[in-house]
């Protein structure tokens, strides 16, 4: 099987993680454009280079496409870029012509532009540092009440913001027309960093009314689509560590954790069953009781405080008690109980990010015709080093990018012993910030 894959940007979770997942099955070939063609925090993608790459790749069974990369040069560029609607329309029409010649099944997603509730412009336009919270409040009230106060936002800034939103929304409506023509096998409009109300939620409702399919999440969706493109019937029983709290809503999402899990399973092509005895495997979800914790923001929650019993059949773990990292108490109980039935772990960023990326790994590992056990173990070591060791522990000890090799060693030793593999890891800050690291084994 050969799959083409165009990521959102060059972050390790977007570029490296798909490769690491697919490496578990030697029968799958994943084709990606050169990493330096992709966008980053400060630069847009080399779209012409990606077009040339796409023209030259051999025949693929399917192609996974992050449409923001093609239209705007990346997810962040989709919010910052100044190009006109007509310029972007011409570009995506050229892209469509190239894809038509590839004769592959196309699995694609495009984001509905997010609205961050903060005054941080690291991933937004410059004026977000002063007016971000005001724009969020305007958006929320405009949707909820239809009569928002815009006096706190200079008119030229509000006009620019709304014009950018309108441009992106009109581009999404073009994709929707392509979907109705049968161009896409699957098309997802992603809701990134959602609240209950907002112009982004309003746009999602309009796209749904027009026949589109929307999904909470963003970065993980290419991986969920990767899972969907791999046809395999797998039945899953979902078991929650807090079964009475599945109606609670995760940070940065607008649906309950139960709906988030079920939606990801459906999109990834799994069958959710109601009895563990009927399942091929168990998805163990370490969910939260009342409010999801947030390690980055310092929002606390009750950590896992029971005795952990793992299933006696194949199982994978989605650790969503905290956003942006693992539940340390839970992982310390889990690690000694990892056995031959263990088929994967994730605790990356939002609940949707965690679940979607995990399901891709489960699908590849479960159906692998040329299973690579070392690649599987290597991936687990990387996930625990990132999601658990760094995000849940080490990151709180630093304030800026620095050498963390010494303080990571105790975590490395434990993981190398459990998975019976040893590496000399390096840790890189790909976007020169502490929010993410790249674990190099």
What does this entry look like structurally?
With 441 residues, the chain is an alpha/beta fold. The chain folds into 2 domains: 2-226, no CATH class; 232-440, no CATH class. The protein has helices at residues 12-22, 47-56, 67-72, 77-80, 85-102, 128-145, 155-181, 199-209, 221-229, 257-268, 328-334, 351-367, 373-392, 405-419, and strands spanning 2-6, 29-31, 62-66, 105-112, 186-191, 214-216, 235-240, 271-273, 281-286, 293-294, 315-319, 322-323, 342-346, 426-428, 438-440. The strands form 4 sheets. It has a 6-stranded parallel beta sheet, with helices on both faces. It has a 5-stranded parallel beta sheet with strand order 8-7-9-11-13. Helix 9 (221-229) runs parallel beside helix 12 (351-367). The longest helix has 27 residues, at 155-181. 44% of the residues are buried.
List keywords for this structure.
441 residues; alpha/beta; 2 domains; six-stranded parallel β-sheet; five-stranded parallel β-sheet; 14 helices; 42% helix; 15% strand; globular
> Which strand order does the major sheet show?
2-1-3-4-5-6
Q: Based on CA inertia axes, which overall geometry fits? A: globular
Residue share in β-strands: 5-15%
Mean pLDDT score, rounded? Answer: 95
Strand/helix succession: EHEHEHHHEHHEHEHEHEEEEEHEHHHEE
Largest sheet report:
6 strands, parallel
Task: Provide the low-confidence segments as ranges.
Answer: none
Q: How many domains, as an integer?
A: 2
| Radius of gyration over all CA atoms, rounded | 21 Å
Q: Percent helix among the residues?
A: 40-55%
Helical run tally: 14
Helix and strand content put the structural class at: alpha/beta
Span between N and C termini? 26 Å
The overall strand count is: 15
